[in-house]
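Researcher: For the annotation table, I need structure tokens for Ankyrin repeat-containing domain. Please keep the output clean. Sequence:
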Amino acid sequence: MAPMRDDRRDARIAKRARRSDAELDHDRRVRERARAAPDPYESALNAAARGALNSSNESALDAVRASVEGDGAIPGPWTIAGAAARGHLEMIEYLRTLEPPCEWDEKACTEAAENARAETLKYLVTNGCPSGAMTCAFTARKGDLDLLAWLRERGVPWDEQTTSGAAYNGHLHVLIWAREHGCNWNWRTTYEAAYHGYLGCLKYALDRDCPLPTGDDLNKLIETVRRRAAEDDDEDEPNEFAQVLKLIDPTDPLMNDLQNIMSFIDSYAVELAPEGEYLDVCLRAQRIFTKLSEMKSGKFERRDRRDFNVRRDFLNEVLQVRRDVVNEFRL
């Protein structure tokens, strides 16, 4: 009986193999036909793109209608997203009345928000188009507080990208509103404010304990802001990048402050105080100055050199030394 069972098993294996070969051949023929025929999905997208270059929404709609109804093109979510980016509301309405309706996704709302198409965005949200956090983020970047509030009333989600989006273009009123209504933030908010030179947004964020970036992100930011501060030669306008630099990297002004204190001690301390009474203040100033010099040259501990809290602690130490000098010498 064993040989018979083996024969049946071999027959089943051979049958599977023949079926698999047939299926593979069928798949091959389908792929060849697909390569030879134009992609209807792509045709619809191209029609939308061509229509967008015309002078009117009507001609754009005609191009899409001809592609869909005449060529049998199949529109998809990117077709609606392309229309939303250009504010072609009639095209979106047409695509949604097809049978079956053209699919849409959150990309449509994102494109409308990124391109400041407020009416189109309201239509999409009102009619149930999915939306994501980037919708609020781009709305905040555009500074449209009324639209942002409208979106939030209708449950459109937001996250840290909304606050960083407001800081990106210096929209302090949007940043304040978002925070007062519970929007989160992270180091991207201070990064964007500092990188683009928006002192008001940066001060607001730092005063409320929004973190600065750390590590290489902070170092690159400091380098960029320092370069822009040096390039700003407009004497009629305040150099906001220079003010930003003081907030994100107080090393330079701290060292200047300490040098002034130490120069004063060296020049006048002996005359103003009994010998030896000023030595403690002098030694403390020298110690902090040495630390700052090491930090600036890269010899300080890697973690401390990149930690904004350490920098802020140094600032407090310098301020205390300054107060001690004033009290010691009754200035």
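Researcher: And a one-line annotation?
Model: Residues 37-131 form one domain.
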